C-alpha cells in the first residue's frame, strides 16, 4: 500500500509552525536530532573559512538552519553548510534552491544516508558542482565534483591533506578544518 506523500509547499507551511526541526525526504517528514560538539565545530570552521573567502563576492554561505529545497526529489534538507552564488537565492529568505557547494559533516546515525540517498537527491540540483562529506572519526574528506560531462568524480583527502574546493576556488588546510576538535 502506497502511503500519501506530503508536497513541499504543505511541508513548508506545517514546518513554519513547528518548534522542532525536521526534514522532508521524498514526501516524508523526519525529525532531526542535535549534533555533538565536534560536528558543530567542524561545520563552523568550514562556514568561517568560506565566509571569509567569499566576502565581497556574489556568493553567500549558509549554515545548518537554512533550508535547501530539492523539488525533483520532493525534499527539503538542512545542510550543515552550503554556498549559493545564484541571484535567485538572494530573493528567498527562508530557503535556497541553487547551491554550488553543499557540505555535510558525517555522524554515525546519518552517514549512510548522507553518502547514499541524500547525495542522490542533491545530484538532482542542476547548480550543484561539489558535495563534500567530512568524516570526524577518520579526519578524511570525500569531495564529489561534477565534471563537464555531468559525471560525479570522487576526490578524497587523507588525514592531514589540504582540501581543494574548485566550486569556490578555496584551498582549506586540514589544520583549519579540524581546528579546536579533539
Summarize, please.
The protein is 24% helix and 32% strand.
- Uncertain segments are none
Strand order, largest beta sheet:
3-6-8-9-10-11
Which percent range describes the beta-strand content? 25-35%
- The total beta strand count reads 13
Distance between the amino and carboxyl termini: 48 Å
Taken from the alpha-carbon principal axes, the silhouette is globular
**Helix content range:** 10-25%
What's the pLDDT, averaged over the residues?
94
**C-alpha Rg (nearest Å):** 16 Å
What would you call the structural class? alpha+beta
Q: What does this protein structure show overall?
A:
The chain is an alpha+beta fold. The protein is built from six helices and 13 strands. It has helices spanning 8-15, 37-53, 87-90, 111-115, 117-122, 174-177, and strands spanning 22-25, 28-31, 60-63, 67-70, 75-77, 81-84, 95-96, 99-106, 130-135, 140-146, 152-157, 163-165, 170-172. The strands form four sheets. It has a six-stranded mixed beta sheet with strand order 3-6-8-9-10-11. The longest helix is centred in the first third of the chain and has 17 residues, at 37-53. It is globular, with a radius of gyration of 16 Å. The termini are far apart. The mean pLDDT is 94.
Core attributes:
182 residues; alpha+beta; 32% strand
Layout of SSEs?
Blueprint: H1 8-15, E1 22-25, E2 28-31, H2 37-53, E3 60-63, E4 67-70, E5 75-77, E6 81-84, H3 87-90, E7 95-96, E8 99-106, H4 111-115, H5 117-122, E9 130-135, E10 140-146, E11 152-157, E12 163-165, E13 170-172, H6 174-177
Parallel strand pairs: 4-7, 8-9
Antiparallel strand pairs: 1-2, 3-6, 4-5, 6-8, 9-10, 10-11, 12-13
Amino acid at each position: 500500500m502506497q502511503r500519501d506523500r506530503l508536497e513541499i509547499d504543505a511541508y513548508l507551511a506545517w514546518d513554519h509552525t513547528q518548534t522542532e526541526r525536521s526534514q522532508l525526504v521524498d514526501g516524508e517528514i523526519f525529525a532531526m536530532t542535535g549534533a555533538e560538539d565536534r560536528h558543530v565545530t567542524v561545520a563552523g570552521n568550514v562556514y568561517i573559512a568560506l565566509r571569509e573567502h567569499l566576502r565581497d563576492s556574489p556568493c553567500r554561505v549558509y549554515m545548518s538552519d537554512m533550508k535547501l529545497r530539492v523539488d525533483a526529489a520532493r525534499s527539503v534538507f538542512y545542510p550543515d553548510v552550503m554556498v549559493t552564488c545564484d541571484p535567485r537565492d538572494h530573493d528567498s529568505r527562508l530557503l535556497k534552491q541553487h547551491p554550488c557547494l553543499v557540505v555535510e559533516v558525517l555522524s554515525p546515525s546519518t552517514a549512510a544516508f548522507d553518502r547514499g540517498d541524500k547525495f542522490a537527491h542533491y545530484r538532482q540540483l542542476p547548480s550543484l558542482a561539489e558535495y563534500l562529506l567530512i568524516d570526524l572519526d577518520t579526519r578524511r574528506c570525500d569531495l564529489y565534483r561534477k565534471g563537464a560531462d555531468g559525471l560525479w568524480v570522487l576526490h578524497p583527502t587523507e588525514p592531514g591533506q589540504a582540501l581543494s574546493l574548485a566550486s569556490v576556488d578555496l584551498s582549506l588546510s586540514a589544520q583549519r578544518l579540524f581546528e579546536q576538535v579533539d
